[in-house]
């Protein structure tokens, strides 16, 4: 029986449903938009399912622009203003030959048949203002219990579409839900089928998982499942680390470090930092040695980690900026930070303030996933002192040629010969300013340029 709940539909969505019904068909909003609405989340997209065939849908909305790339699977995308709405005929999926796409679809007359083909119960609900909520598989109860559960038999659901293995973990992270035991067991059993999924889709699902509020917990709990997508994870699970610094194995340290990232990261930093933390210690099992004291050591794991991260991100077809920035951070994430102004200014000259702020964020997240010991807390204070001084010097210090009080024209006026000598003279000035031998004042710098010009004759 339909459940009497009320979901506030945007006017355009209500209008699309009404037009389908006026033409003699049934129609519902379905899937993620219903789930999010019941959770009090404003949906980003509204999908519609209907008893109308694709041809009938096209006719009903003949006055609207349409995208027909989904016709093979019963979907007509109707454009209303700048937004697209997918309208799909109730369907059952045929056999899945490639663990990803059904070879054929079969239209069915009722919404209940369509819901039976969906992945998880929380995504298998439909709603219509007149009929209410259609929930055949206990999705609303699972929302209340905060659990991800497959519709029907889990192994069958995952065998149909291997991406669902990753989606289960991703939804657990995004919604801060648990995963039903039978669903998790089936996902683990079929984890290797994820390798049949395109690298781009694996990257996208992992990125959504990393952005979830429960990413740290979910990574820690479901690492063996995620090893189906990133096989390098498996060696990190159970790879012990020295107790002087650590309280986790490499994988659980990684999960805690991802979870320790600030939630209010700027968008341009967020994806870079999340991938950095996921991959920052991935090479540790490859570098692990055991000293005479019985403690584990990981010589060279920074540089080797950057190389491994580069291979992984290339394999996943990650955006170039994510790959380059993440690998650059991983290469130095465990290195020392300078504690004097000239060295900090040179780091600013080489990397810039934004990159150094990212590095500090990486170091603090990394340290937050260590044991709570005085030596670790002392390192955290070092990072915070560096960050504070670095930001001050970025505002007040001179660390680029542009920051000098003189320029190329001044060098020529002082008698420096045209050509490479101009740049060399300005670089000498900058070095003297950075090292504190020369103030960043125009008169002093002009005098120094004249001395250089005189010494060149």
Description:
This protein has four domains: 11-137, 2-Layer Sandwich (Beta Polymerase, domain 2), CATH 3.30.460.10; 146-230, Hydrophobic Seed Protein; 232-397, no CATH class; 401-456. It has helices at 11-22, 32-38, 54-60, 111-115, 139-145, 154-160, 163-175, 181-189, 199-211, 215-226, 233-236, 250-260, 267-279, 284-287, 301-315, 320-332, 341-351, 353-368, 374-396, 408-413, 420-434, 442-456; strands spanning 27-30, 47-50, 65-67, 75-80, 83-89, 91-93, 105-107, 125-128, 132-135, 147-148, 178-179, 289-290, 296-297. It contains 22 helices and 13 strands. Helix 13 (267-279) crosses helix 18 (353-368). The protein has a seven-stranded mixed β-sheet with strand order 3-4-5-2-1-8-9. A two-stranded antiparallel ribbon has the order 6-7. The longest helix has 23 residues, at 374-396. A hairpin with a 7-residue loop joins strand 3 (65-67) and strand 4.
Largest sheet: 7 strands, mixed
Give the total of beta strands.
13
Kindly state the percentage of residues in helix: 40-55%
Judging from the principal axes of the Cα atoms, what is the shape?
Answer: elongated
Q: Any low-confidence stretches, pLDDT <50, length ≥5?
A: none
Q: How many DSSP helices?
A: 22
The separation of the N and C termini measures 97 Å
Q: What is the strand arrangement across the widest sheet?
A: 3-4-5-2-1-8-9
Q: What is Rg?
A: 29 Å
**What is the structural class?**
alpha+beta
Average residue-wise pLDDT: 93
Count of the separate structural domains: 4
**β content, as a range?**
5-15%
């Amino acid at each position: 029986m339909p459940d009497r709940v009320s979901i506030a539909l945007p006017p355009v969505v209500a209008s699309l449903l009404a037009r389908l019904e006026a033409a003699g068909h049934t129609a519902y909003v379905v899937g993620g938009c219903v789930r999010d609405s019941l959770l009090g989340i404003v949906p980003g997209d509204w999908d519609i399912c209907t008893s109308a065939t694709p041809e009938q849908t096209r006719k009903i909305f003949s006055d609207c622009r349409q995208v027909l790339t989904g016709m093979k699977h019963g979907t007509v995308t109707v454009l209303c203003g700048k937004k697209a709405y997918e309208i799909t005929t109730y369907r059952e999926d045929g056999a899945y030959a490639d663990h990803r796409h059904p070879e054929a679809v079969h239209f069915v007359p009722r919404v209940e048949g369509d819901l039976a083909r969906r992945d998880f119960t929380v995504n298998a609900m439909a709603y219509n203002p007149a009929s209410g909520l259609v929930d055949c598989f206990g999705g609303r109860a699972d929302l209340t219990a905060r659990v991800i559960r497959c519709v029907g038999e889990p192994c069958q659901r995952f065998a149909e579409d291997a991406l669902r293995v990753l989606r289960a973990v991703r939804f657990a992270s995004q919604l801060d839900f648990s995963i039903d035991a039978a669903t998790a067991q089936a996902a683990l059993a079929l984890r290797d089928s994820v390798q049949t999924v395109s690298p781009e889709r694996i990257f996208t699902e992992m990125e959504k998982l990393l952005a979830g509020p429960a990413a740290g917990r979910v990574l820690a709990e479901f690492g063996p499942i995620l090893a189906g997508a990133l096989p390098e994870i498996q060696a990190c699970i159970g790879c012990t680390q020295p107790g002087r610094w650590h309280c986790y194995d490499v994988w659980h340290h990684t999960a805690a470090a991802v979870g320790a990232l600030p939630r209010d990261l700027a968008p341009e930093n967020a994806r870079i930092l999340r991938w950095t933390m996921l991959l920052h210690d991935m090479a540790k099992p490859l570098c692990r040695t055991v000293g005479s004291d019985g403690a584990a050591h990981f010589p060279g794991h920074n540089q080797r980690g950057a190389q491994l991260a580069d291979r992984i991100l290339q394999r996943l077809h990650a955006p170039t900026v994510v790959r380059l920035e993440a690998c650059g951070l991983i290469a130095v994430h465990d290195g020392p930070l300078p504690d004097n102004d000239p060295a900090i200014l040179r780091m600013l000259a080489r990397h810039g303030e934004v990159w150094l702020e990212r590095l500090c964020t990486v170091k603090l997240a990394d340290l937050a996933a260590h044991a709570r010991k005085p030596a670790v807390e002392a390192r955290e204070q070092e990072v915070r002192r560096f960050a504070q001084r670095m930001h001050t010097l970025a505002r007040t210090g001179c660390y680029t040629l542009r920051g000098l009080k003189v320029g190329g024209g001044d060098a020529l006026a002082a008698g420096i010969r045209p050509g490479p000598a101009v740049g060399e003279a300005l670089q000498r000035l900058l070095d003297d300013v950075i090292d504190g031998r020369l103030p960043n004042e125009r008169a002093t710098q002009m005098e120094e340029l004249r001395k250089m010009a005189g010494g060149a004759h």
